[in-house]
Design a protein that fits this description.
Layout: H1 3-34, E1 47-49, E2 56-64, H2 74-77, E3 89-93, H3 104-117, E4 127-134, E5 140-146, E6 148-150, E7 161-164, H4 165-172, E8 183-188, E9 194-195, E10 207-208, H5 209-221, E11 228-230, E12 233-235, E13 248-249, E14 255-257, H6 271-277, E15 282-284, H7 287-292, E16 298-300, E17 330-333, H8 342-351, E18 363-364, E19 370-373, E20 378-383, E21 388-389, E22 399-405, E23 412-415, E24 418-421, E25 429-438, E26 443-453
Parallel strand pairs: 2-17, 3-4, 4-8, 7-13, 9-10, 19-26
Antiparallel strand pairs: 1-6, 2-5, 5-8, 6-7, 11-12, 14-15, 15-16, 18-21, 20-24, 22-25, 23-24, 25-26
Helix pairs in contact: 3-5
C-alpha cells in the first residue's frame, strides 16, 4: 500500500475509534439515565437504550399497488368483540393535544392495527408504545424499533445476545424496564394523503395508515438486526457494548448468506462481511419461518447498495403481492395489508415469541365422485370451496387449480372454485381428476372420480310399513 494510502487509512481508523468512543459514552449515559430498575435488579451493562438512529423505516413507494388486499388473519376476523386477546398493547400518544388529537381518525386506524397484533403474539406483560405523530424525512412513512434491548437474563435461550425488551419481558414474564416503554414508533404527519379507514380498498392516491402501523409495530416487537455497513466495512453489535463484549441481536443468529453461512461467522468489522450484506442474497433460516415459507429459507432485503434503516431488517421484494408482503421495505399507494403474514410470525417465533396462532395450510375434505349419464352435461357440478378447510394464514380467498385429468373425454373444467363437467359426445367411461388449493403460503391436493354411464341403476328399497 502506498505511504499516502496508509496514512489516510490510519487517520480514518483513528477518527472511527474516536467517534465510537463518543457514541459509547453518550449511549451509556442515556441508558443509565433511562433505566428505572435498581442495580440489584439489572446491571447497566446488560441493558441498552437505543436511539432514533436504530429505528427501522418504511419507505413510501409512489407506484400504485397492483396487489390484492390482504385481510386480517383468520383468527382475528373470527374474534368476538368481547374475546380476550393474548397480549395487551398500550399506546402512549405523545403530545396528543397538539398532534394525534388533530387527526382522530389516525388513532382509530392505529387501534385497529393494535387489535390485530394482540391476537398474534402471547405476552403476560403489557407492551407499551410511545407513538409520535411528527414530520419525518421525505419518503419515509414511519419508523420504529425497540426502546431498549437486554441480555444475559435468566430464561433467555441465548446468552451474550441482545433481546428486544418486549420479547425479553414476554420470555421472563417480568417487566424488566419498569416505567419505560417497550417500543418507540414515529409516523409522518407531513403526508396529506393518508387513508385512515380500515376497509379493504385503499384509494390509489393514498397510503394505508393501519398497514404502516402494523408494519412498524412488527419492528418494535423484534424484527430488527444489528448488522450495518459503513463504506465497505460490515459490522454487527452495538457501540454501547464496546470494548468487550460485542453482542449481536437474537435476530442475527438466524441470518445467513446464499451459501448457508451464518452472518455471525464472518469477522466483525470486515469488508468480507460488508460484501455479504449487499450480496442480494441474504436469508433468515429459522425453522418456524422456513416452515411458514413452504420449507424454503426466507429471503431478506439485501440490495447491492446498503440502505440504512431498510437493508437486512425487511423481507425481500419477492414477497410483494403475497400474504407476506407487510414486512417488505416499502408500501405502495393503494396497498392494503392487514396481516403480519405467516412468515413474519415464524420469524418472531424463532426469536422466542410464542403464539396461539400456529400456521396451517388450507386442506381438502374428501371430494365426492361425480356420476353422469352419457351425453349429460353438468355445469357447476362441484364447488371445491365447500370441501376446503381454510388455512390459518395467507389469503382468505385461496386459489384452486385443475392439475390433471386422466381422460380428457370427461370434459372437466375449472372456473374459480367451480368444477363443470361436459363429456365428449357418446363417450362412456371414467376419469380421475386431480386438483390443488393454495393460500399463497401452503397448499394441498386431492382427487375425485368422474363416471359417465349409458344408464343408471337404482336399488329398490323395501317399503316400510308405518
Amino acid at each position: 500500500m502506498p505511504a499516502k494510502s496508509r496514512k489516510t487509512a490510519h487517520i480514518v481508523s483513528l477518527m472511527t475509534c474516536l467517534l465510537l468512543s463518543m457514541v459509547v459514552t453518550s449511549w451509556a449515559q442515556h441508558a443509565q439515565a433511562q433505566n428505572t430498575l435498581s442495580p440489584s435488579e439489572i446491571k447497566n451493562t446488560d441493558s441498552l437504550t437505543l436511539t432514533s438512529a436504530d429505528l427501522v423505516r418504511l419507505i413510501a413507494d409512489d407506484q400504485v399497488s397492483q396487489s390484492q388486499p390482504v385481510p386480517p388473519p383468520p383468527n382475528f376476523s373470527r374474534r368476538q368483540p368481547n374475546a380476550a386477546a393474548s397480549a395487551t398493547i398500550v399506546i402512549n400518544y405523545i403530545d396528543a393535544p397538539s398532534t394525534w388529537d388533530l387527526a382522530p381518525q389516525a388513532k382509530t386506524a392505529f387501534q385497529f392495527a393494535v387489535d390485530i397484533w394482540e391476537t398474534q403474539i402471547d405476552s403476560p406483560v403489557n407492551i407499551v408504545v410511545d407513538a409520535y405523530w411528527i414530520p419525518l424525512s421525505t419518503g419515509v412513512l414511519g419508523s420504529s424499533g425497540p426502546y431498549s434491548v437486554i441480555r444475559n437474563q435468566a430464561g433467555f435461550p441465548q446468552t451474550a445476545t441482545w433481546y428486544p425488551i418486549a420479547l425479553a419481558n414476554a420470555i421472563t414474564g417480568t417487566d424488566l424496564n419498569g416505567s419505560s416503554p417497550e417500543i418507540v414508533a414515529q409516523f409522518n404527519s407531513s403526508y396529506l394523503n393518508w387513508y385512515f379507514g380500515t376497509g379493504a380498498i385503499t384509494p390509489s392516491t393514498d397510503y394505508n395508515f393501519a398497514s404502516v402501523v402494523l408494519h412498524e409495530l412488527g419492528h418494535g416487537l423484534g424484527f430488527v438486526g444489528s448488522m450495518n455497513k459503513a463504506l465497505t466495512v460490515g459490522e454487527w453489535g452495538y457501540p454501547a457494548s464496546l470494548p468487550l463484549p460485542v453482542n449481536s441481536f437474537i435476530y442475527d443468529h438466524s441470518t445467513e448468506n446464499g451459501a448457508g453461512q451464518g452472518l455471525l461467522s464472518f469477522p466483525n468489522f470486515s469488508t468480507v462481511l460488508g460484501d455479504q450484506l449487499t450480496s442480494e442474497a441474504l436469508y433468515f433460516n429459522g425453522p418456524k419461518a422456513v416452515a411458514a415459507n413452504g420449507g424454503n429459507r426466507v429471503a431478506l432485503y439485501a440490495p447491492s447498495v446498503w440502505r440504512s434503516g431498510s437493508s437486512y431488517s425487511h423481507l425481500a421484494e419477492s414477497f410483494n403481492g403475497t400474504p407476506n408482503a407487510l414486512m417488505t421495505y416499502s408500501l405502495s399507494r393503494g396497498e392494503t395489508n392487514y396481516s403480519p403474514g405467516p412468515v413474519m410470525l415464524g420469524i418472531l417465533q424463532d426469536m422466542g415469541w410464542t403464539s396461539s396462532l400456529v400456521y396451517q395450510p388450507p386442506t381438502f375434505l374428501t371430494l365426492p365422485g361425480q356420476l353422469l349419464l352419457m351425453n349429460e352435461s353438468r355445469p357447476d357440478a362441484l364447488n371445491l370451496a365447500a370441501y376446503t378447510k381454510p388455512g390459518t394464514g395467507g389469503s382468505s380467498n385461496p386459489t384452486y387449480s385443475l392439475t390433471h385429468t386422466s381422460n380428457p373425454n370427461a370434459g372437466v373444467t375449472l372456473s374459480g372454485s367451480m368444477i363443470s363437467i361436459a363429456p365428449a359426445p357418446n363417450w362412456v367411461g371414467s376419469a380421475t381428476v386431480e386438483v390443488s388449493v393454495t393460500d399463497g403460503v401452503g397448499s394441498d391436493s386431492a382427487s375425485f372420480n368422474v363416471v359417465v354411464a349409458e344408464q343408471l341403476f337404482f336399488l329398490n328399497l323395501p317399503v316400510i310399513a308405518r
